Amino acid sequence: MEKYAINITLAGRSYRLKVSATEEEYVRAAANVINEKVNEFSGNYAFKDKQDLLAMAAITFATEFTKHRKLTENSGVMIEDKLHEINDILSK
Predict the structure, then answer these.
(1) Buried (b) or exposed (e) across 4-33, using 16+ Cβ within 10 A?
(2) What is the DSSP string of 28-69?
(3) Confidence tier at 83 by pLDDT (50, 70, 90)
(4) How far is CA 78 from CA 14, 67, 70, 86, 87, in A?
C-alpha cells in the first residue's frame, strides 16, 4: 500500500508523517482529539510547557485504551464461555 506525507499539528507543533490513504482519516482524527485534550488541560492545570500537557494527554489516552482492551478481553472470555455452554446444551 502506497504511503504519502501529511502534516499534522500537535500542541502547536507541526509533524510530517507518512501514512496510507486508509490511515489518514484516523491519524487526523487522533490529532484533533489530542489537541482538544491538550487545550482542555491547558485551561485547567498549571504547566511549564506543552510537553507537560502532551504527557497528561498521553496517560489519559493510554489509561482509556488499557481499560477498553481489558473490557474487550473479558467480553471475549465471557462470550467464549457462553458459546461452550450453548454447545454443551445442544450436544445433549
Answers:
(1) eeeebebbeeeeeeebeeeeeeeeeeebee
(2) HHHHHHHHHHHHHHHHHS--SSHHHHHHHHHHHHHHHHHHHH
(3) confident
(4) 44, 16, 12, 12, 14
Predicted confidence (pLDDT) per residue in 11-43, tens digit? 999 999 999 999 999 999 999 999 999 999 999
- Rounded to whole angstroms, the Cα distance separating 80 from 92 reads 19
Angle among Cα 72, 65, 14 to the nearest 5 degrees reads 145
- CA nearest to 42, candidates 8, 10, 65, 17: 10
14 near 7, Cβ under 8 Å?
A: yes
User: Residue 3 above 80 pLDDT?
Assistant: yes
